[in-house]
Amino acid sequence: MSTRNRGLLATTAVTVAILAAAAPLPAQRLQLSATVSELEAQVQRDSTDPNAHYFLALGYWSEKRYDEAERYLKQALAIDNRYASARLALAYLPFARRPKLWNEMFDDRVPTEMVPVLEQSDREYRHAFLIDPLVDLRILAAVTPPRPDFLDVKDYLGEAWALFFQGFADCQEGRYVDCHGRFEALIRTIGGDRYAQRIPSSVLWYKGLAAAHIGKFDVAAEHFRLLMKRNVDFEKDLERKGELTRVPLRTNEYRYTLATILQAAGKSTDAIVLFQEVLNNDIGAYMAYVRLANIFEAQKDFPRAATERLRAVNANPDDASLLVDLGVTLGKAGDFAAAETRFQQALELNPRDVRPLFWLGIARQQLGKPGPAREAFTRYVALAPSRYDRQIAMARERLTQLPEGQ
């Protein structure tokens, strides 16, 4: 297995292998706001809340109970298939179970039995960033060695390496302002502001993400455009040489991330063009349909939004949340009968997700079906997680508006 074929996980592995050599210390513990027993009680109270399952998984992870951590991460995804943080955690769980996997990847000596594990890890990593390119990166700190002391590394390896190490550590611990500033200093130190080819792609990736996290969208866009160009050039070079090395679809992933950054920056026209290019290259990139729909819905172009949402459903028919999105858009367009059908389909596909019940109640209320509306709202109030308190209050208020006995 080549490090190239491991994509961005391999890039991170190189970084971590160097970090491990500089500071052979145990991996950081997860910082939890509650005890594991408290998190277990929360899941008992709010069994339909993906957040409760996710944080219990982190609790088990902190105690090295990795099988239980995996089970509850998957429970969170069973409720909400688009829970990006849970997918990113699943991507890195193998590295918590087997810390030496980082070095095995770096040295290209991964055991045969671990190859499918890494392939699944890679799929989860990509899926997490497809759902949300700005997914919280702090789970990485749970599986990477703690950063070496900045001054020690600076004295031993020089300022550039110190900035490199510290920049990754800042990103992995959610300090995006520090991460961006550290990598900015690194780029100046190595002359990357004049010679862009000197900037490592891993630095462009993480600095671009950090810039987007802190609202520096123009900077983030510049970095992802450079990453796209590099990957296009790499693929052309392979084609020219006639090499058969498998190249992951990184160019399209960078294109998608750039489109989401432009969308966040309010550059909808440019974002639409890029999302459409993403889909021209991979019709299975269902979140590009979702994001196109969000743009059209914000413009109150509900017919186009509904069309994109239906395409998302067709591209990923196992995700019930896409049916909920479609139903909500149809409701905004005034087609409550079609919306009711979609909410019912979502409940049949994933009965663990209670969110469609709220919208189903609204659709039925609008259709003049007080009895079925009351049933939906009552079930929602009984099953919804406590953190949905605002919608629970709205459902209760709507119940008082329904006529009795119908």
Helices and strands, with pairings:
Blueprint: H1 7-22, H2 36-45, H3 50-62, H4 66-79, H5 84-97, H6 101-106, H7 115-131, H8 150-157, H9 159-172, H10 176-189, H11 201-213, H12 217-241, H13 250-264, H14 268-281, H15 286-298, H16 302-315, H17 320-332, H18 336-349, H19 355-366, H20 370-383, H21 389-401
Helix pairs in contact: 2-3, 3-4, 4-5, 5-7, 8-9, 9-10, 9-11, 10-11, 11-12, 12-13, 13-14, 14-15, 15-16, 16-17, 17-18, 17-19, 18-19, 19-20, 20-21
State the end-to-end distance.
65 Å
Apparent shape: globular
Number of strands: 0
Binned, the helix content reads over 70%
CATH topology of one domain: Serine Threonine Protein Phosphatase 5, Tetratricopeptide repeat
Please state the second-level CATH architecture of one domain: Alpha Horseshoe
Instruction: Give me the secondary-structure category.
Output: mainly alpha
State the low-pLDDT regions, or none: 1-28, 148-157, 241-249
CATH superfamily of one domain: Tetratricopeptide repeat domain
Secondary-structure element order, as H and E? Answer: HHHHHHHHHHHHHHHHHHHHH
Characterization of this structure:
This protein is mainly α and 406 residues long. It has helices spanning 7-22, 36-45, 50-62, 66-79, 84-97, 101-106, 115-131, 150-157, 159-172, 176-189, 201-213, 217-241, 250-264, 268-281, 286-298, 302-315, 320-332, 336-349, 355-366, 370-383, 389-401. It has a domain at 4-144: Tetratricopeptide repeat domain (Serine Threonine Protein Phosphatase 5, Tetratricopeptide repeat), CATH 1.25.40. The longest helix has 25 residues, at 217-241.
